[in-house]
Amino acid sequence: MSPVPVQIVYLICAVLFILGLKRLSRPRTAVAGNQMGAAAMLLAVVVTLLDRQIVSYEIIIAGLITGAAAGILLAVKIKMTAMPQLVGLFNGLGGGASALVAGAALLELVSLHGGSRSPGSIFIVATSFSGIVGAVTFWGSVVAFGKLQGFVTGKAVQFSGQNAVKLILLMISLGLGGWLFFSPMSGYLYWAMLLFSSLLGVFLVIAIGGADMPVVIALLNSYSGVAAAATGFVLANNLLIISGSLVGAAGLILTNIMCKAMNRSLRNVLFGGVGRELSVKAEEEETYAGKVKSATAEEIAMMLDGAGRVVVVPGYGMAVAQAQHAVRDLMNLLEARGSVVEFAIHPVAGRMPGHMNVLLAEADIPYEKLKEMDEINTTMEQVDVAIVLGANDVVNPLARSRSDTPLAGMPIIDVDKARTVIVLKRSLGAGFSGVPNPLFAADNTLMYYGDGKEGILDLIAALKET
Questions:
Q1: Catalytic residues
Q2: Where would I find the beta strands (DSSP E) of 192-335?
Q3: Domain residue spans of the chain
Q4: CATH annotation of 282-465
Q5: pLDDT per residue over 89-99, tens digit each?
Q6: The pTM is what?
């Protein structure tokens, strides 16, 4: 296959990637956008395999079979509650692959030409950049996966002088990259650079609390794209440069959106250490003592029976309980009785960007019922009953009233302004921020203790009996 047709096909794939990303911006067209991007990637892989000098198709086919088997197994076995850590792991695999491919290209050049031909400046710079960013992405994603999966503590692990350590690791990594530039045939320098970059990735993410994982996942997604684009320069592959740049830009935009949703800078997320043990936890007894009121499913059913407008605020607790289908059934029952039911979505609810949207879409809840935070807050005072299902930090009024907590200034869903608030949680435990939530003790709040799914099912049964 001649180079010109290949470049034309690459251009077509690039256009499909861009159109697919555009479609991903809207829920109704997201599935088609995802399919368009997948088709473009398949076309790009096929064309590349036909164009390049392939040493052994047998090895490639074996890799395809292995990868497909792993992908199918993950698609079937992974629950929706584990989707955030799976996405984080995918980011890491992309970054790790970029680093290994760039390293393999360097080793190939060294082994084929020895000291007879020195690689170009762009090749070495791109190789070093891909290695550093790819290693940081992989090991940072592994730590993020561990935090979300529970293998690693969700709290921010910090120690004295940690920022200095991270700076030293970065300087060493860059220094080794610079050394490689002047001594490109010393392949061991690349792997030494990967070692220190890997340590940097671990220290960067281990110091970030679980509450900030949506931002971390978005940022690591951007890193994986940047690493892929750099590898595109290593391989002189225009499509890899374009696709990596698109992923990098999209991830960075999403990271910015997540930071704005928390009213924090990216620097504060990376170095602020939200999730440490905080002295404010001592205020829990004072916040809740003698003020918290609970209710049964039957009592809540009587309130909902005459409610004109009901707003559900989903959180990670809904994901853990797999309660989205039960929530859909509750919505259908309430609407059959004349209630208007909507869902208030906070940008950082859950453990990854768009987590709640994905879960509710899985339960076939209409997209138009999903309201963004800014939209729903303007009419929250007109809500008869607000049901908080497993959310905590994103509805904590302390974000508005206290400047000495990790939530200070973070925009929240103003459920406390609703006429009645029902909070369905297992306990009064704090969210990832580690601060108590005075909403639980508010005069207009009733706590409904229990598992999210079982609690909603009990509520449905009680409603049917009213």
A1: 393
A2: 309-314
A3: 1-77, 81-271, 282-465
A4: 3.40.50.1220
A5: 888 999 999 99
A6: 0.79
